[in-house]
């Protein structure tokens, strides 16, 4: 065979393989992103003829439903959101004009009744019209409202998780939006400087402040090299990473143990702990808690942010030049999502086991067959002994330390406050509280953060957490 013909044949084969590869990627591996692209309206146009399933809250409250418009071959279904802005984030929206986001996107297959090719063919043979399934979320409407009201219009987020199942009971991002307004007011919402379409719970990266000391404590205690009785100097200031570090308010402590250091959130103590365990170990435990990767939430990937140490948008690891002492106290270039910090609290509450977070609870098809959530373990973060020890220390934070405003009248609360200084000269902070209750038999874990406040974690975020936990435990 002529060599030129052989070369031409080879080129054709290569080009065909590339074409096959790209089309396979678009249609299979990148299918979700393709469907989410607002420029790709074909799936939306096709699916508006399907009676899309309802989305329910945990108590059966209707969050989203479809209503018919037109008749005969012109009949379509349009989405309505009876609860308005209460679930704007995280449920999202589904409209032909603007595509779909949030829970509406991540559970689209169930909501439009997509099945296997065999079952779909069987339905067509039997003359059945495609119909969406009802998807029940784990979200608690009462607690969602309590969290929204407690934020009182300020920018911030609240996430509450059931520790032993990973079910998300509360996901509030404020400011929020009313999904019913999306078709006619999307441009206005999208350009609003307060960013209501941005889900702060899953997308926003904030400095965690002293809530990060829970992660540092877990790594230190689980290593076996530290105990609650380990003493170090709490003097202020001290050198941390070659730079002077002070305690909040310049507070002075002598030789103190770890429990005292967590109760009083002593920066200089925890810097020493982080430096002694080193970057490899601290990053190992960060990985176990879910840092340095996107959360395993049933939510669109483009609406999930990774928590970790960043430099110009690039994620750093233990081998990079990092001030590990300041990472250990929630400073440096560490950025976290509220969801991530709720997972930190939930891991301690669940005897050291991190469960994959889930917004859905069950799916009910048109024949009333029910598929329920089967909780999945994401990681064994620490031993149960370490988790129990850390729980006792975090209980002291609420009973005797900076987290007193999160205390409940009927149950012990384990928690940790955090106050990240955003503008020290102006006194502007990022306020945090993470914790769980009851401390001896946890039912709910919570993370609260408030943006650009002159208050502190113990005065601003802890009271919000207290109201949310009380609502869930007494609801």
Task: Jot down its keywords.
475 residues; alpha+beta; 3 domains; five-stranded antiparallel sheet; 17 helices; 22 strands; 37% helix; globular
Description:
The chain has about 475 residues and is α+β, with helices and mostly antiparallel strands. It has helices at about 5-30, 30-35, 40-45, 90, 100-105, 110, 115-125, 140-150, 180-190, 200-205, 215-225, 260-265, 265-290, 325, 340-350, 385-400, 455-475; strands at about 55, 60-70, 75-80, 95, 100, 135, 155-160, 170-175, 230-235, 240, 245, 255, 310, 315, 335, 355, 360-365, 370, 375-380, 415-425, 430-435, 445-455. A hairpin with a 4-residue loop joins β20 and β21.
How are the SSEs placed, and which strands pair?
Layout: H1 3-29, H2 31-36, H3 42-47, E1 55-56, E2 62-69, E3 76-80, H4 88-91, E4 94-95, E5 99-100, H5 102-106, H6 108-111, H7 117-125, E6 134-137, H8 141-151, E7 156-161, E8 168-174, H9 182-191, H10 200-203, H11 213-223, E9 232-233, E10 238-240, E11 243-245, E12 255-256, H12 258-263, H13 267-289, E13 308-311, E14 314-315, H14 324-327, E15 334-335, H15 338-349, E16 353-355, E17 360-364, E18 370-372, E19 377-380, H16 384-400, E20 414-423, E21 428-437, E22 444-453, H17 457-474
Parallel strand pairs: 1-6
Antiparallel strand pairs: 1-2, 2-3, 4-5, 6-17, 7-8, 7-22, 9-12, 10-11, 13-14, 13-15, 16-19, 17-18, 20-21, 21-22
In short, what is this structure?
By secondary structure, the protein is of the alpha+beta class. 37% of the residues lie in helices and 21% in strands.
Q: Provide the helix percentage.
A: 25-40%
What's the CATH C level of the largest domain? Alpha Beta
Could you say which overall geometry the principal axes of the C-alpha atoms support? globular
Domains, number: 3
Strand arrangement, largest sheet?
3-2-1-6-17-18
Largest sheet: 6 strands, mixed
Report the sheet-strand fraction. 15-25%
Multimer state:
single chain
At CATH level 2, the architecture of the largest domain is: 3-Layer(aba) Sandwich
Please tally the β strands and state the result: 22
CATH superfamily of the largest domain: DD-peptidase/beta-lactamase superfamily
């Amino acid at each position: 065979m002529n060599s030129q013909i052989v070369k031409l044949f080879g080129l054709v084969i290569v080009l065909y393989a590339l074409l096959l590869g790209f089309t396979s990627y678009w249609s299979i591996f990148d299918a979700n992103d393709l469907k989410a692209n607002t420029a790709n309206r074909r799936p939306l146009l096709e699916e508006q003829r399907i009676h899309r399933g309802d989305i329910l809250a945990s108590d059966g409250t209707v969050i989203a439903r479809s209503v018919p418009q037109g008749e005969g071959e012109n009949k379509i279904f349009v989405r309505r959101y009876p609860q308005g802005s209460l679930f704007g984030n995280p449920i999202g929206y589904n409209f032909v004009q603007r595509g779909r986001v949030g829970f509406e996107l991540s559970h689209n297959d169930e909501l439009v009744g997509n099945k296997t090719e065999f079952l779909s063919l069987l339905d067509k043979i039997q003359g059945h019209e495609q119909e969406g399934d009802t998807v029940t979320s784990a979200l608690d409407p009462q607690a969602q409202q309590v969290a929204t009201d407690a934020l009182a219009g300020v920018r911030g987020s609240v996430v509450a998780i059931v520790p032993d199942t990973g079910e998300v009971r509360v996901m509030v991002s404020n400011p929020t939006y009313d999904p019913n307004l999306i078709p006619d007011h999307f441009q206005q919402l999208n350009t609003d400087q307060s960013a209501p379409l941005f889900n702060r719970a899953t997308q926003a990266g904030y400095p965690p402040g002293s809530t990060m000391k829970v992660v540092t404590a877990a790594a230190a205690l689980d290593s076996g090299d530290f105990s609650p009785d380990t003493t170090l100097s709490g003097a202020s200031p001290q050198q941390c990473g070659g730079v002077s570090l002070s305690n909040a308010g310049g507070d002075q402590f002598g030789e103190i143990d770890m429990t005292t250091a967590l109760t009083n959130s002593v920066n200089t103590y925890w810097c020493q702990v982080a430096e002694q365990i080193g970057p490899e170990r601290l990053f190992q435990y960060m990985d176990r808690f879910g840092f340095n990767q996107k959360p395993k939430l049933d939510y669109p990937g483009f609406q999930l942010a990774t928590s970790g140490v960043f430099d110009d948008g690039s994620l750093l690891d233990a081998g990079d030049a990092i001030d590990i002492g300041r990472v250990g106290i929630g400073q440096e270039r560490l950025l976290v999502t509220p969801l991530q910090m709720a997972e930190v609290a939930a891991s301690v509450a669940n005897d050291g086991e991190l469960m994959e977070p889930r917004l859905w609870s069950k799916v009910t098809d048109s024949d009333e067959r029910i598929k329920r959530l089967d909780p999945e373990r994401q990681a064994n973060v620490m031993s149960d002994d370490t988790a129990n020890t850390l729980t006792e220390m975090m209980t002291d934070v609420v009973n005797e330390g900076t987290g007193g405003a999160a205390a409940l009248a009927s149950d012990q609360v384990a928690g940790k406050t955090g106050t990240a200084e955003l503008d020290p000269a102006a006194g502007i902070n990022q306020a945090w509280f993470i914790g769980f209750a009851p401390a001896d038999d946890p039912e709910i874990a919570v993370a609260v953060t408030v943006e650009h406040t002159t208050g502190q974690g113990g005065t601003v975020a802890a009271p919000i957490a207290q109201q949310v936990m009380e609502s869930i435990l007494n609801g």
